[in-house]
Every structure is written in structure tokens, then in C-alpha cells.
Amino acid sequence: MYSKHVTTLALCGIQPIPVFVEADISPGLPQFQIVGLPDAMVKEARDRIRSAIKNSGFPFPRTRLTINLAPADVKKQGTFYDLPIALAILLAEGEFSKEMILDSIFMGELALNGDIRSVTGTLGAALLAQYLKTKNVFVPKENVQEALAIPSLSIFGASSLINLVLHLKKEQVIPPAHKIKQGRKAHSVYPILLEDIKGQAHAKRGLEITASGAHNVLLKGPPGTGKTMLARALPSLLPSLTYQESIETTSIASVAGILKSNQGLIIEPPFRHPHHSSSATALVGGGSWPKPGEVSLAHRGILFLDELPEFSRHVLEHLRQPMEDGEVTISRVANTIQFPARFLLAATMNPCPCGFADDPKQTCTCTPSMIHHYRKRLSGPLLDRFDLIIEVPRLDPDAFCSSHVQETSKEVQKRVEKARTIQQKRMKKAGIFSNAEIPASLLDTFCKKDTEASEILRQALRQQRISARGYARACKIARTIADMEECEYISAPHIAEALQYKEGNSLMT
């Protein structure tokens, strides 16, 4: 006999697609077949489902059993099909009526004893339910907080197959789950804060601009000057994610399987710091079943690359397109998948292999050819995508030993939040979150300059101090500096400061 379908989902990147699980029980020799482009994990579900149904006290069909995962042209991957397939079989067997599964989405992995285990991609089920205007979402108990990120849905946390079936038969009710309130991490929890770093006022000013406009930054200087500490203090300056940013970030983390049990929305910008031995696939994503890479896991947060020239040049060149477009496109024969990758790139580097090429107090032991080869590991187009290149000089001993109270991360973060709020109000209708995202077509609209500021930019273009991309970059940085000062128009001092973060830098020559 043929049953009505049970609704679940497939994930194309982070995009959920509705999948309908159909069960057909017909006479013949015992056979359990799953069709509809299932992968190995889905095919292996047959043994888990058979044991789970039997150990939950339900009879398993001893005839020909066919499961269809529709649409049949979409690849199915993952263990969360266990529960909807088991429910489709029990529905076909008449254990409960089809009216009980209407307006519901199911997902979950089954243990051999019938328990329901946590899965990845739960937020996708909630987003799909919102899109389909479905009221109920049944997920493993450990994943309810993730699904509760979408309001106006009834989220049910199921612990076992027998309990879920009793709920569907209205014999034992599973109450809807409730959201646990989350708070922002206290500043004391961050490993490094701005007040932990002595001196380096110029670099700290650059970091504030970086955080305020989500601009890419490269910190350059001799060893021991605090470059890495400055970069690691950057997360403490960023404001909390907006709701839409949290949804995007959590969706990526959910698909990647890095969310903790019972974790809800990610409200803090992610901070990713891959090792320099990382491959291109690890950095930008990919694989036979494409998964998000570090650039996507850092979406709406920070991707930190310490000692940038130590990374393979081939790997670093893969960053150019995501830095420009804010997304990663992975093409395969069967389909093309896109992952968001709007990240703030923070990197550090020494001026030469020994690190002392620009140090007035240490003698550099590198030959010119060694320095040339070292800097050639970074291509000009990649360096041109850094909005700010900040020199971090060796700290004066008096400044290092000074007891002067440093400005705290909390104080700077308040100013950053104010600047971000100004940007979001100005560009809300365009769907832009920060100044770094302003496209060339809207540059004149959002980066209005006074006469003197425009003249300074024209002079920089005439003298070929900046490229076309450099012109747009200077406008965006100046717009951020103006927002920090709550100015409506970009003035000459804003442009002058924006230009000096690239002007005359030895890396660009």
C-alpha cells in the first residue's frame, strides 16, 4: 500500500530544499531499497532504521519495501534522513494517521535502540519551515535551541522514536521547546584585550577603523612588536551580530557541524585562525560533497592569517575572489554551490625572513634577493585587497615600562558600535551591513565628499599614488573615519588619513 510523504530537507550548500520521503510496501521477497540519489550514509541507514523500529516495539515489514526521496534529481547526504524514513515506514504500516504529520518537518539520526541523536543542518529545517509556512518542526532534543532561532514556529525536541510516535498518536504529548536567553561574552573572557598591549597608538587607531568599517588589515613589522597580539585583540572590538548576520553565520556553522550541543544563534562574530599549512580546499571550501571552508566559517567575523608569507602563494591566491565578491562558488559536474564569505581579513607579516629589515636597532641578515623572494610570496593583486597596511614599529622601552593606563577594548567597542549603527541606518535599504561592502555603483551615493576632499583624491589619482581599486578603498575608509566622528560628509582630514594607510608602503613597490 502507498502512503503520503513525510517532509524533510536536503542542503545545497546552506540552502535548504524540501525533500518528500515516500514509502511503498508491496508483496514479494523481503527487500529494503532506498532510491532518489542517496549517498553511502543514507544507504547505510537501512540497518539503523530496521533495528530502531524493531527495538522500539513496532513490526518491520517482511515484504518488499521501497523508499523514495523526492525530488529524485537532488543528491541526498547525511544521517538526518533516518527519522523521516522510519516515520514513512510506520505511516505506511498504519501506526498513525497521515493527518498527524501534515504541516510538519522531521529530521534526526536513529540509534539502534530507537534513540534520536543530534544532526547537522537543523537551522536549515527551521528556515525551510518558515519558507513553506509549516508550523511544526521535529528535531533531536540536542538541536532545539538552534531551530528556535526562527520565531513563530513550534519546535519539538524528540528523544526517541517511540516517544515521537506516541506524540503523533496523541497518547503522550511532547511539549514545544522554549528558547534559552543568550548573552554576549564578557570582555574578561577574551584571551587578549586592547588594554593588555602597551603603546602602539597608531596601530590601535588602525584597528578601530578596521573594526568600525569591517576593512581588511595587514599588520607589518619586526618580530616582538605585538602584531599577533593586536590582531587577536580585534574580536573584542567588534559589535554583536545583527539578527540577519546571526542567521547567516549560524547556518554555515550548522552545516559544517561545529555548533555545540544545545547552542542557539551565534551572536558573536566568529574568529578563525587556520595554520599556514592549510590547503586551498580547507581555506575556501570544497570536496566531493562541498563543505564550507575557513573563509565561510569566518563569515561576518574575522579570518586571521598569522605570518602571511608562510602560507602557500597558490593557497593565498584563492582568497582574491572571496575578498572581492563576499562569497565562494564551488562548481561540480552535477551542480554549483555557493557559500557566503563576507569576512574581515586580518593578517600579520615580517618585512623580511629574519624580520629586522625595517628595524633601526637590529641588523638585518637577509640579502636583497632573499627579501625580494620573501615579499614575492604575496602577489600585488592580493596586497591591493588589503584596505589598511599598518606599520607596527618596535616599542620604545620607556613606553613599554610605562604605567600609563591603556584605553580598554570595551571603550573602543562602544565607539565601533556607534559607527556601525550609523552605517546600517544609512545603507539599510541597500542591504549593506558595513562600509567595506559598498559596491562601486553606490560609492558616490554613500561616500559624499566636500570640495577639498575631492581635490585631494584627484591629486592622488594624477600622481598615480592609488589605483582604481585604491580610489574606492580610500573613499570607504574615509567614510568609516567620518562615521567615527559622526560627520555627514567626508572632509579633507578623513581622506588624508585614509590615504596614509597605503601611501609609500614598501610592500607595494
Automatic annotation (TrEMBL):
Keywords (A to Z) from UniProt: ATP-binding, Nucleotide-binding
InterPro entries assigned: AAA+_ATPase, CHLI-like, MCM_dom, Mg_chelat-rel, Mg_chelat-rel_C, Mg_chelatse_chII-like_cat_dom, P-loop_NTPase, Ribosomal_Su5_D2-typ_SF
All copies of domain AAA+ ATPase, residue ranges: 213-396
Statement: the UniProt record of this protein carries the keyword ATP-binding: yes
Pfam families: ChlI (PF13541), Mg_chelatase (PF01078), Mg_chelatase_C (PF13335)
Gene3D superfamilies: 3.30.230.10, P-loop containing nucleotide triphosphate hydrolases
Highest taxon of the lineage: Bacteria
Gene Ontology molecular function: ATP binding; DNA binding
Keyword Nucleotide-binding tagged: yes
Similarity-based family: Belongs to the Mg-chelatase subunits D/I family. ComM subfamily.
Protein name: AAA+ ATPase domain-containing protein
